[in-house]
Amino acid sequence: MSEQMQKSIEQIDWKQMGVFTESGVFNELLIAYILSTLGFTVVYYLSKILYPTFVKAIFGPDNCYFSLSD
Fold it and tell me: How many Å apart are CA 46 and CA 36, to the nearest integer?
């Protein structure tokens, strides 16, 4: 690379542009993503399992919810 290009690259504020400048930031975002995905999956399957029980208890077994397909 030319010297002028090297200087211009060094002058860029990478942090302000949203570039990860430290590996710790990426690790934190990765952990947040994994926990969010796992949390969503758990809530989704729990609601899929428990919701019919609540509907049956509140509205009865003849509710139109039970005629829906998956």
Answer: 15
Inter-residue contact 52 to 65 (CB < 8 Å): yes
Residue-wise pLDDT for 11-63, tens only, equals: 888 778 777 777 788 888 999 999 999 999 999 999 999 999 988 999 988 88
The CA distance from 4 to 2, in Å, is 5
Q: How far apart are CA 14 and CA 20, in angstroms?
A: 8
Using CA of residue 19, residue 26, residue 21, residue 5, what is the dihedral sign? Answer: negative
- pTM attached to this predicted model: 0.57
| Domain segments of the chain as ranges | 45-70
CA dist., res. 34 & res. 42, Å (int): 12
Question: Quick check: 14 and 21 in contact, CB under 8 A?
Answer: yes
